[in-house]
Amino acid sequence: MNDDERLLIVPDTHAGLRVDVALQQLLPEFSRSKLQEWIKDEFVLVNQSYVSVKHKVYAGDEIKVIVQSNPENNAFLPEAIPLNIIFEDETLLVINKPAGMVVHPAIGNWSGTLLNALLYHMPDIAHIPRCGIVHRLDKETSGLLVVAKTLNAQTHLVQQLQARSVKREYRAIVWGQLWKNGTVNQPIGRHPSIRTRMAIHLSGRPAVTHYEILERFGVHTYLRCNLETGRTHQIRVHMQYLKAPIVGDPVYGLKSIMPIKSMSEALRQHVLGFNRQALHAIRLGLIHPLSGEAMEWSIDLPDDMKALLEIIRAEQLSVTQPLEDLSFDDYLDEVSDDIDDDMLEDDE
Asked: Does residue 78 lie in a domain region?
């Protein structure tokens, strides 16, 4: 929504300047990069015509600027976004977050978040820090997430998370064949050179992920993962550490070394078309802040992960001879010629 419109007449002193330079001087309250963005998005007209950033203006030219509201202003506004509510009472709300929804507003996602939806569903939650959100799921991770509806409930839940007593179970489909259940106990910190990523780091915070093999296939493994800690991108980083990255993970996956030769065309296309990490928070357990009762919720896999598993299982049944017992590392040489170069608790 537009805040207002500014109508300017170019003075003699600004004749011959580029339109972005002239506007920066005439409207010093806005940055040049912001003005350039508005010009490119056709929110600036010169003599009633859209122009490029390099367009030069002359004395007497009329410039109309449609001032755009700052997206950060929408960060804490209620939005009528549907919520898949699994449980709700006077103190707690448990939802099944869909893949694609951001939990908390941040750069690049100032609206359309879970927080915006919560403010619409429960306006009074605005009085609670972070609108009752005590843990997060990545944008493209689906599944269960609990929200506190009162300050006391929020405090109680944070204490449970700090005590590692909240049970959080995930399902993941990963690359490679894992052969035994295990635990990854590796600290996680900010990546030393790519600040938007996390990495195994000696100076990082303790991170513990337990994993159990549910099904093993030719080039994939279906896992149950349980979190003991809640670090940013925890499961995704730990699976990468095992050299069994999560299918579809655009950050920690190893798309360029997928075992292409070991997959049928149907499976290959389905995997390439799976556009988010195959990770789902399937079970959540905690102590109710008011009653003291142990509570637990579980949900089904989402349809996209069900479909992925079905095609992987069908692929396995179609194999007439058993695949060699190869680790993911062993696949690398095999497929090298086929490479296509194309503080809250944080779950996963």
From this structure: no
Taking alpha carbons only, the member of 11, 18, 10, 16 closest to residue 47 is: 10
Reduced DSSP (H G I as helix, E B as strand, rest coil) percent helix, strand, coil of the chain, to 5: 30, 30, 45
C-alpha closest to that of 323 among 176, 174, 173, 172: 176
Please check whether residues 61 and 93 belong to one and the same domain: no
Tell me the residue type at 50: Y
Identify the residue whose tokens are 């990255």: 245
Q: Rounded to 5 degrees, what angle do the CA atoms 90, 94, 98 make?
A: 145
Sorted by sequence, the CB contacts under 8 Å of residue 112 that are 6+ apart come out as 79, 81, 101, 102
Place of tokens 């995997």: 271
User: Using one digit for the tens of pLDDT, what is the confidence trace for 149-187?
Assistant: 999 999 999 999 999 999 999 999 999 999 999 999 999
**Please, are residues 255 and 182 in contact by the beta-carbon 8 Å criterion?**
no
- Which tokens hold the place of 112? 């359309």
pLDDT at 195: 79
Q: Are strands 92-97 and 85-88 parallel, antiparallel or unpaired?
A: antiparallel
Claim to verify: residue 232 and residue 149 sit in the same structural domain: yes
Question: Shortest CA distance to 131 belongs to which of 347, 344, 293?
Answer: 344
Residue 79 lies in a domain: no
Tokens at 266, concatenated: 């149907």
* Cα radius of gyration rounded to whole Å, the chain: 25
Residue at 52 is within a domain: yes
Contact 231, 346 (CB under 8 A): yes
Residue 138 annotated as catalytic: yes
Please calculate the CA angle 85-169-140 and round it to the nearest 5 degrees.
65
Going by C-alpha positions, the residue among 348, 312, 345 that lies closest to residue 160 is 345
DSSP state of 14: G
Predicted local confidence at residue 116, as pLDDT:
94
> Per the residue annotation, which of 3, 20, 124, 138 is the catalytic one?
138
Sign for the CA dihedral angle at 227, 230, 234, 238 comes to: negative
Same domain, 340 and 289: yes
